[in-house]
Amino acid sequence: MIDWRAGIVVGPGRTWHGAIELEVLLESDGGSPETDGSRCAALAYPRLVGRPRPGDRVLLNTNAVRRGLGTGGYALVVALPGGPPRDLEGPGHLVKARYTPLQACVLGVEEPDSPHYATLCDADDLEGTPVVVADLHSALPAIVAGAREGRDGPWVVYVMLDGGALPVWFSRIVATLRAEGLLAATVTTGQAFGGELEATTVHMGLLAARHVLHADVIVAIQGPGNLGTSTRWGFSGVAAGEVVNAAACLGGRPVATLRISSADPRARHQAVSHHSLTAYGRVALAQADVVVPDLSGTPGVAAEFARQVRAQAEVLAPRHRLVEVSTSGLDTALASLPVELSTMGRDLDTERAYFLAAAAAGRHAASLVGAS
Question: Fewest CB within 10 angstroms: 44, 88, 255, 312, which?
């Protein structure tokens, strides 16, 4: 199940909060000559394995490299056999990545030992806070752009689900948005870890975002590296519907982002993706504001495509409130982001409609702040 390799760190690459990119010279595994002595990009999480330095021998999981994965195509550092770290223990009793070799103990925001325990012990109400839900992690910066539309927008907190990457440190998007002050903080929920706050469940993560971090707008999406199997139900994005239910039962205002595409070659994802239709149309039992972007007259978006998106979204009307939101001016907000926009390997120019839909959801959420 795991493709193990050992290697020597040649040098560091990029670094961002919680992660170090490395260049590693792989040792021979006795396999084919073309893989022996080759180099690869690896990623280390210092809070899990310590801080590898040039010349260190590292043990790697190279599954992603072998399979040529896009989003998660790094070899991952599992250990430094020559000098395992001894000083990484911290407070807390929540075990994340449970019963895996890298399970880690963290301080849960709702634990009795947490300074926030008294605040959250009986917390039960999001007080009408908008909770923006989306399928893919790539929607996050666009939602933030739409919600902020400038640096004086609402206080936005990201609640990370565990359907994709577990360590939030893997996301350069989150690290950059945090560094630039566009994202207030991150709460990691379920098996995900590494946020400013850790929570056991999505429900508690939403409550912590509101009552501890004082979020005006909450964005709840899985981490990078979603999983799909070309089936109706076998994709990690079904969690989007579950978050709608969680937000609604806690007195929040769910805002559903449509995953749309004009460039995906797969029929099931063209116009409104079946992921959105399944998650919101079947899984979400509570009502949400489903944001339908007004794409009419949008440069680079065909008029027929805009009509198709609207027609497909109507399938959700019996259960949800469809809200048409103007996309005028959102191109400027997207262009001002400090991160490169990309979804499934396609950039803003290729998938303008996708990013405009996400930004429109953020814009609508911002309009709800203080409305309840």
Answer: 88
Any residues with CB less than 8 A from the CB of 67 and at least 6 apart, and which? Answer: none
Strand segments, DSSP code E, in the chain are 4-16, 19-26, 39-44, 57-61, 75-79, 94-96, 104-106, 130-133, 156-161, 185-189, 197-199, 217-222, 253-257, 260-261, 271-272, 289-294, 321-326, 342-343, 346-347
Domains of the chain: 4-79 (2.40.50.220), 117-368 (3.40.50)
Q: Which amino acid is at 156?
A: V
pTM of the model: 0.93
Task: Calculate the CA 269 to chain-centre distance.
Answer: 19
| Residue 236 near residue 164 (C-beta atoms within 8 A) | yes
| Helix/strand/coil percent split, the chain, to 5 | 30, 25, 45
For residues 141-154, b (16+ Cβ closer than 10 Å) or e, as one string? bbbbbbbbbeeebb
100-140 pLDDT, tens per residue? 888 999 999 999 999 999 999 999 999 999 999 999 999 99
CB 173 within 8 A of CB 219: no
Rounded Cα–Cα distance for residues 160 and 186 (Å): 7
Element (H, E) at 274: helix 274-278
Decide: 276 and 307 in contact? Cβ < 8 Å: no
Contact call for residues 280 and 320 (beta carbons, < 8 A): yes
Half-sphere exposure of 200 (CA within 13 A, CB side): 9
Task: Annotate 181-238 with DSSP letters as a single string.
Answer: TSS-EEEEETT-B-SSEEESSHHHHHHHHHHTT--SEEEEEE-SS--B-SSSS-BGGG
Q: Go through 286-297 and write b for each residue having 16 or more CB atoms within 10 A of its CB, e for each that does not.
A: eebbbbbbbbee
Using an 8 Å Cβ cutoff, are 218 and 131 in contact? Answer: yes
> What's the burial of 342, exposed, middle or buried (CB within 10 Å: 0-12/13-18/19+)?
middle
CA angle (235 as vertex; 287, 124 as ends), nearest 5? 40
